[in-house]
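re: ur question from the group chat, yeah i did fold both. here u go
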Amino acid sequence: MANFLLELGTEELPASFVAGSGKQWQRLVPATLAEQSLTNDSIHVYATPRRLAVSIAGLPVKQSDREEEVKGPPAASAFKDGKPTKAAEGFAKKQGVEMDALEIRATDKGDFVFVLKKIPGRPTADILAELVPLWISKLEGKRFMRWADGELKFPRPIRSIVALLDDTVLPIALVSGSDTVKSDRISQGHRVLHPEPVSIAQAEGYVECLRAACVEVDRSQRKIQIQAQVESAATKQGGYADITEDLLEEVTDLVEWPNAVVGKFDDDFLMLPPEVITTIIVTNQRYFPILKNPQFPELLPYFITISNGDPAKSAIIAAGNERVVRARLADGQFFYKADLAKPLEDYLPKLETVTFQEDLGTVREKVDRLCKIASLIVNQLQVTAEEKLHIARAALLCKADLVTQMVYEFPELQGIMGQKYAFASGESEAVATAILEHYLPKGAGDNLPQTMTGQIVGIADKLDTLVSIFGLGMLPTGSSDPFALRRAANAIINIIWAAQLPVNLHQLLSESVAEFTAIRPETSPELLPQLSEFFLQRIRTLLQEEKNVDYDLVNAVLGENDPEYTERALRDLLDTLERALFLQQIRNDNTLDKIYETVNRSTRLAAQGDLDKIELEPKTTVKPELFQKSSEQAFYDAVVQLVPQTQLSKQTRNYQLLVDSLTEIAPTVGNFFDGPESVLVMDSDPEIKRNRLNLLGLLRNHARVLADFGAIVKS
């Protein structure tokens, strides 16, 4: 068995590519080896800012020999009078076999010539020499570059290749124009701590060899070391390290030999909001803050840098980092004091100088639109007069901090500084909190706004963006969604669901579109249908992917090509969610099976009638005098008794009542179809047929209070 090592030595790679490339090779390398029937004991992928590597243990020296059956020409054309023709001779020659190796076999298309070829396995070294360039070329990422005068693309120039099969260099060359990089056994150690070349004797022991040169190639080990060093350094300062996963991941891909260095800043800067300090330290500098208490955001005047330099120079490194942080914090302090010089409301006129979107005017105009949408939402909800004032005030001020000096310099602080400045301006807690919350959620898994004021202003802001951008005809396509419209729609739906807001989204969309059309009369009449369909798509996705509801049950709740059902889903999102979750529940506990056959059969047959899908009352739609069998009367009596149960189920959203009632009458409906007194629904008498179809239509309609059973697939 043999071991193989491949290492690409590069100039400093972007941190995002380091982790991403490793994950790609973890999928690509095993897959391509399997295609070549090359078994192995283990595959390990390593990545640092200056190298990507893969180590494969337990490879065979060559592929196993294999047999391959090849189908040739029809027997009738390959042999004449028992003698081979030129067709047979040509086939044998092409396959490299003697004539006596040919066999005639019967197939469903007649007799054909076959040959069973024995294909010897190729040397593993030859296969790897072909695979390595493939592994390199298949890597994907952002901002690939060319260097020299060739066409080879990579995030940074490739400077060396180590390719060892055990202790033998595998000859590989990457050509980029006049620049050619050939494989050998020479790698590079740490740029500062071990600048000398590193000669790797054999493929086995790569990790230990590079560690001796002050390079930790194992990414998971670097991450563990960084976390341990940061926590230890914070403890020594009497605090707790504020380690976010995103920062830890990024820093892991910025260094090869981590070394925690503690820096300090002046206590005076602690008068700044903690969010300002952490934004400067974390977002801008990629350093770790130190907290006084892990439960609260209060900071100590220290930060931790993960250096890739010489630990002996830590004091010099810390001093340089401190100068940078001090300057940034001083800027933040200046901006903060300047912004506090006037109340938040005074920034509103300046919003008229900021463009929201070229064809949609300024941010101030957006504020006016979202204020109107917020009032439309308020009109649907039972809110107090005080809450109404808070919502209107928060909607007016929610974007004011965008033109402050602090947010101009640090855009990620939008909303956060708005809350701070609102408090400083004497605004109520409800208004200040809503300014912060209306941006939530900022991404998948993020917190949702918790206050009603924040929820309503957040919905209004996102809905204005959706209506406005859709109004310009700029709909998301494929993966292109520059205005994050899918995320905005998802947020609106999730806020309504989580906060249990009884918002009629269909009405809200209609009113918002009407307001937008009044401003822009040239707006397409398709705007409302487009938005409605877009929200239905998002509801469908959220129910399936986040609520784990089966696709057919989602279809049954939302309806397929059914405007009445579609509108119902948008009118009451809370009911839509409840019905979907309830359907999944009764499928999981097998209750759905008890009613599926009778309701689904009735639904399919009722489609051949003309009863509308809303009618529930049998006394106005069915004529008992036309009954010919007792099963019809029993069916009718059961539906009469079903009416009050269905009405109560609708009013209380207690769909268990409806399912219990449908379960109870299932045997009665079964007798109507298949019992001793069963009937032929499609009777030759049109009146009798219509009467029976109306009976089935009524059952379908009662079931539709829960779902369109015609869309449900049998378990």
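okk and heres the other one u asked abt
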Amino acid sequence: IRNMRHFITIVLLILLPLCAKADNSQLYKQLDAALEKRAHYVEVKEKSLNDIKQGAKYVTSNEDKLKLYEQLANDYKAYEYDSAMTYVKKGLVLAQKSNNILYHKRFQLSQTGLLITRGFYAEAKNIMQKIEPKEEDPLDYQFQYYYTLYGLYNNWATYCENNEFSKNYNQQKVKYLKKAIELSPKKDAFYYYLMGELYYYSNQPNNNKTIQCYKKALSMEKTNSRLHAMTAFALSEIYQKANNLALMEHYLLVAAISDVTSATKENVALQDIALFIYKHKTRSLKKAQEYINLSLEDAYAYNNRLRRIEISSKLQMITNAYTDEIRATNSMLNIALSVIFLLLLGVGISSLFIRKKNRLLKQKKDEITATSAKMEILNEQLHLINDELKNTNQKRERLVKVYIDLSYKNIERNQKLRTLAVRKIKANQSKELLSLLSSSSSTERENKEFLTEFDKFFLALYPTFVNELNQQLTESAHIQLKENGEMPPILRVCALLRLGITESSKIAGILSYSPQTVYNYRSLLKNNAIDKEHFEENVLKLCMVIAD
């Protein structure tokens, strides 16, 4: 079991940094996404502040106004120094005017917190000495007092950078931190954060209890809060001292994201990420410069002189490194361009020799291309001729079929008549034969059958004839087929004109009409034609392409 535990521990030690690195890449994307929405988070913050300001207009009670001023001062504390100080001063004036001693001390305490952020430590200490809490003061005021003292000595010790005063300041900050914890509400996120601070400054920075307390506070707090950012930043410092760079970077990113989403302008995480990138080359120096510039913007927006000086020194360092990187890149580009130039020169000389060969090849290719083009044209012409021949043969076959069908029917009709005549003569029925031959009904039936067959064959041969003929006539004179699909008499006259039969007598004989009737139809057609003078010539040109 013990060996198994050792094995699991070793595996975790190997895998955790790899997972952290993968997670950090995702966190960089989240940070960049949050930075793109900075304006939105600021807008949300401004709206929240404006809502409180609007509410203050309708408050008449001095104590209620003092509460609102304190809330505004606290909300502006990490967002905009000047506005926070403005509401602190308003609170001081109103508390003094209304003789509210407790609120006067509370606003002095807020004033001290702001002075600490600007580096006015001595001035802050002087104020703190005047407002030391008494036993009868509320516990929350006592807690804020000792927590503010802890912040004062913590910042003062950091500012001294391990000089002869640092030891005393460190002792003082731990002392007041313990007093703050005694007065702090238990088991909330801020309590665990303070416990983490106590373990951090009392024991080794990689102490398990320290990390446990910070992570407990982190899990209990919203990601877009100031406390969440502070806790994540504290964890990054622990892992930095433990030389765990992957987890240090991880919690710096978490802190920076919380700073951006909570619209905190008094921040450190983003500039530390820029410095981390500069030192460890985890991202491009361009990204580091982008982050440090945004940190400087926040410092100007908050109006923190010390933070601006601190960031400016880092900015100069990162900018110089970025400039050096650009110069190195440009040197490499110049070398690459020189090599490319020499290569291009070699290619140019080679291309002169190749061009001569290509010229000869191009001449041959042009000749072959010209010959191929001529062959393609000839092939296309042959295809067209073949298509025309096929079409002509098809037309001939159809015309022959029409002729054979009509001839066959006429021969069959004559054969039946001949057989009937022979039978009647042999039977001495000449009178009946004469009566039958003289009957007009038989002739009319035969003529009707002929015309029906004529209509059918002609329209099959020229299916577009009616439409094309109507295009030669005025709209009011358009001709339509009968309901049964047969052609009216005037259309049959046009059909015979299309077939080249122009004599009215022949047309009258074929259709069994009188010559006068045919003449009247032809006159009517010419009178209604669009081109009267050339109407019959135009009819001969209809349906030049016989449909398949």
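fwiw on the second one: The two ends are 94 Å apart (CA to CA). The first helix runs from residue 2 to 36. idk if thats what u expected
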